[in-house]
C-alpha cells in the first residue's frame, strides 16, 4: 500500500472550488511530481461547503469538510493508498474552517495514525472582523451578523457558540481547547496576510497583530524590502512606532476630483467619453445595486437559517460543540468545588493566565501625557480591538512555530482576491498574486 500526503484546500465566503484553481495548479506544478521516499501528494479541494452553504457558519462548514476528508481517506484506502501525512490550506473564511476541521479530526483520533505537516492560511480573519473608527465599519458591524447568517455572527464575534457564551473565534484560539491543541501539532504553520488594500480582511486580523504598521505606509516612513524571487512578498520591514506615525494631509478639492475613479471592477472601467455616461448613471445604478445586494443577502441569510434548523434537527453525529459544552460544564463544576473548599484560593482573586501585565497598574493615576494620548482621536487605520480579540492575538502569537508572510499589492482596489489569483480569466491583475502562491508551494513540506 503506497503512502499519500493529503493536502486539503478550503475556499472562502461565497466561494467554490474554482476560486482555488490557481492554488491547486501551482502546488501540483511544484510538488505534484515530487516524491519524498514513497509519499505522493494528493490534493483535495473541498466541495461540500460552497456558495450559499458558506453562510452556515465556521462550525457547520468544518463538520462538512471533516466528513469530506474522512470519505476521501476511505476512498484512497480502497485504491490501495494510505494517507500517512496531512496538510491543510485555507483562504479567507476557509482558514477559520480549517482551524475547526483539525479540531474535529483530532477529536476523532485522526492524528494518531496520520502525521500533521503543514497548516497554512491566506487572508484569513483569525480574530474575526475587527472594528475601526469609521462609519463604514460601524455599518458593517451592524449589518454583517444580520445579512450573513451564522457566519456573519461568528465573523463579528457576536455569537455565543460555547455554553459559556464565548464566540467561536475566541474558542478556536483557546490553548485549553482542542482546536488550538490540534493546531500546535503541525510543525509548519505559516500564514499569509495582505499588508495593504485588503478591504475584506484587514491586516490586523489576517496577520494576527494588535497594530497595523502598514496603515499609513506612504507617510509613516516604514522601510520595506521585498523577496527577489517572489514578487510582492515582503522579506523584511522596519516598523515605525505608532506615536511617531503621521496622517496624510487631506487632498485639495480639485485633486480629489481629478483623481476620482468610479468604484467598479477594472473590466467595467470606461475611457473618455464613455466614462461620462457611467458617472451620469451612477445616481441610478448605485442605489439599485445596493438594494439588489441587500435583498439577495437577506434572502440567502433567511435560507441559511432555515437550513441550520434542519441540520440541527437531523444531525446524528455528536458535534464538537456538544463535546466542548460537556467539558465547560465539568470545568464550571470543578471551579465551584474549588471555591467552596476553604483550603482553596478564591477564584475572584486569582490572576487570569495570559492577561495583560499592564492591568496591574490600572489603579494608578495616569500622567498628563497619558491622559492626552487617551483623549486623542484614534488613527483611522488602527483597529478598535476587544479584550477577547487581544487575547486571541496573544495566544496565537505564542505558538513558537508560527511564521508570518506579508503580501504587498499596490495599485489594486481590493487585494483580497489577488493573493490567491482567484479569477485570472476575468481579472488579469489577479495573476500578480502568483509570487505569493509560489512562496507557499516552495515552502510546503512534502
Automatic annotation (TrEMBL):
Signal peptide: none annotated. It comes from the Eukaryota. The chain crosses the membrane at residues 276-299. The keyword Membrane applies. Residues 3-205 form the DUF676 domain. Residues 347-383 are annotated as: Disordered. It holds the Pfam family DUF676. Keywords: Membrane, Transmembrane, Transmembrane helix. The keyword Transmembrane applies. PANTHER family: LIPASE ROG1-RELATED, LIPASE ROG1-RELATED-RELATED. Belongs to the putative lipase ROG1 family. This is Serine esterase-domain-containing protein. It comes from Suillus plorans.
Amino acid at each position: 500500500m503506497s503512502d499519500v500526503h493529503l493536502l486539503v484546500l478550503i475556499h472562502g465566503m461565497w466561494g467554490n472550488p474554482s476560486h482555488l484553481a490557481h492554488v491547486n495548479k501551482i502546488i501540483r506544478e511544484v510538488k505534484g511530481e515530487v516524491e519524498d521516499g514513497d509519499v505522493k501528494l494528493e490534493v483535495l479541494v473541498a466541495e461540500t461547503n460552497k456558495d450559499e452553504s458558506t453562510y452556515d457558519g465556521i462550525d457547520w462548514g468544518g463538520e462538512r469538510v471533516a466528513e469530506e476528508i474522512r470519505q476521501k481517506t476511505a476512498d484512497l484506502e480502497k485504491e490501495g493508498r494510505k494517507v500517512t501525512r496531512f496538510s491543510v490550506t485555507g483562504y479567507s473564511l476557509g482558514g477559520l474552517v480549517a482551524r475547526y476541521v483539525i479540531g474535529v479530526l483530532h477529536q476523532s483520533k485522526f492524528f494518531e495514525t496520520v502525521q500533521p505537516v503543514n497548516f497554512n492560511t491566506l487572508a484569513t480573519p483569525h480574530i474575526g472582523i475587527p472594528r475601526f473608527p469609521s462609519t463604514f465599519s460601524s455599518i458593517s458591524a451592524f449589518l454583517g451578523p444580520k445579512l450573513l447568517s451564522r457566519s456573519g455572527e461568528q465573523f463579528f464575534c457576536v455569537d455565543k457558540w460555547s455554553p459559556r457564551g464565548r464566540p467561536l473565534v475566541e474558542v478556536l484560539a483557546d490553548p485549553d481547547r482542542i482546536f488550538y491543541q490540534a493546531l500546535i501539532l503541525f510543525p509548519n504553520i505559516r500564514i499569509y496576510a495582505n499588508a495593504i488594500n485588503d478591504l475584506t480582511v484587514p491586516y490586523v486580523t489576517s496577520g494576527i497583530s494588535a497594530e497595523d504598521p502598514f496603515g499609513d505606509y506612504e507617510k509613516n516612513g516604514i522601510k520595506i524590502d521585498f523577496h527577489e524571487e517572489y514578487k510582492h512578498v515582503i522579506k523584511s520591514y522596519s516598523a515605525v512606532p505608532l506615536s511617531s506615525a503621521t496622517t496624510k494631509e487631506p487632498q485639495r478639492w480639485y485633486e480629489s476630483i481629478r483623481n476620482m475613479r468610479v468604484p467598479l471592477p477594472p473590466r467595467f472601467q470606461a475611457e473618455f467619453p464613455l466614462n461620462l455616461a457611467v458617472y451620469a448613471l451612477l445616481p441610478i445604478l448605485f442605489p439599485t445595486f445596493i438594494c439588489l445586494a441587500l435583498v439577495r443577502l437577506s434572502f440567502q441569510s433567511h435560507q441559511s437559517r432555515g437550513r441550520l434548523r434542519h441540520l440541527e434537527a437531523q444531525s446524528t453525529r455528536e458535534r464538537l460543540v456538544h463535546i466542548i459544552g460537556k467539558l465547560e460544564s465539568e470545568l464550571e463544576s470543578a471551579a465551584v468545588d474549588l471555591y467552596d473548599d476553604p483550603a482553596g484560593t478564591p477564584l475572584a482573586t486569582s490572576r487570569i493566565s495570559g492577561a495583560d501585565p499592564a492591568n496591574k497598574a490600572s489603579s494608578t493615576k495616569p500622567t498628563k501625557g497619558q491622559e492626552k494620548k487617551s483623549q486623542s482621536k484614534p488613527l483611522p487605520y488602527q483597529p478598535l480591538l476587544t479584550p477577547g480579540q487581544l487575547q486571541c492575538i496573544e495566544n496565537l502569537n505564542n505558538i513558537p512555530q508560527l511564521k508570518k508572510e506579508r503580501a504587498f499589492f499596490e495599485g489594486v482596489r481590493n487585494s483580497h482576491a489577488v493573493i490567491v489569483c482567484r479569477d485570472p480569466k476575468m481579472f488579469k491583475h489577479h495573476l500578480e498574486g502568483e509570487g505569493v502562491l509560489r512562496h507557499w508551494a516552495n515552502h510546503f513540506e512534502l
